[in-house]
Amino acid sequence: MARVVELSYYPVKGCAGVSAHDAVLTPAGLAHDRSFMVTSEEGVYRTQRRWPRLALIRPGISADGERLTLHAPSRPYALDIDVDTSGPRRDVNLFGAPFTGIDQGDEAAAWLSEVLGAPSRLVRVPPEHDRVTDGRIPGTSGYADSSAVHVLSRSTLDLLNERLTERGGDALPMDRFRPNIVIGGWDDPHTEDRVRRITIADTELGYTKLAIRCAVTLVDQEAGTRAGPEPLRTLATYRRAVSGGGGVAFGTKYAVLRPGKLSVGDEVRVALWGEAEL
């Protein structure tokens, strides 16, 4: 029987995740997921692709979303701020697409600038954020790369780690891939590639596309440094996607069809199967 074995959300895009036993699933994904983003002073998003030290920033957010705390090993004190959801909007840029954000003030900007070694700002998704995401089923999300929910199975990572160790490399932890929902109990690796609709508890997810992996997978999430060519080098030997410009696929993305509540241990039921786009 397939079950949810891990739940994680990432309050600040590019920063460390928060593990949860229970989570609310909203139309934009797990509550608070990618609801904040670090940008340059000009509003251009910062990502681990260029700023791997983002991984060292560990957020905490209150259940009501009104208080945000950031910790980093290089800073003698944590940043602890009241979240501004009504302040002036500013233009931000995510993958070349224009959005808006609510700036969270100079204290947050100074703290992040010290950690990253570059002038930075922190913005929050405004309440009127109406982003439409792409893929087979349209949906919405905060400042995530694309769709609302990223799903990965344990057997998929197990197969990759077998191939990595066969090539003389080290096995990698799940956090290298930053999924929202990890599923256990699917014996066949990449079962998620064929899943078109999933129901978990009272929620439902609809498949949008394969997760095409980028250089963020090269970042050691504990050290905040680029760790070499793996896993992309090994994934390229067996996971080249037909779509996505020939990138390597690992995991799947979903839109939220029915919000609700998820918990670790919930049964995962597949309501519709399809053919893998690989």
In short:
The strands form 5 sheets. The chain has an 8-stranded mixed sheet with strand order 3-1-14-13-19-16-15-21. The chain has a 5-stranded mixed sheet with strand order 2-6-12-11-10. A 3-stranded antiparallel sheet has the order 5-4-20, with no helix packed on it. It is mainly β and 278 residues long.
N- to C-terminal distance: 25 Å
The biggest beta sheet is recorded as: 8 strands, mixed
Query: Low-confidence runs (pLDDT<50, min 5 residues)?
Result: none
Element order: H for helix, E for strand: EEEEEEEEEEEHEEHEEEEEHEEE
The number of distinct helices, counting runs of at least 4 residues, comes to 3
Basic shape: globular
Strand order of the largest sheet: 3-1-14-13-19-16-15-21
Radius of gyration: 18 Å
What does this molecule look like?
The structure is a single chain. The protein is mainly beta. Helix content is 10%, strand content 37%. The protein has helices at 106-116, 154-166, 232-235, and strands at residues 3-9, 12-13, 18-20, 22-26, 29-30, 36-40, 58-61, 67-71, 79-82, 89-94, 97-103, 120-124, 149-153, 181-184, 195-200, 203-212, 219-220, 225-226, 249-258, 260-263, 268-273. The strands form 5 sheets. An 8-stranded mixed β-sheet has the order 3-1-14-13-19-16-15-21. Helix 2 (154-166) links the parallel strand 13 (149-153) and strand 14 (181-184). The longest helix has 13 residues, at 154-166.
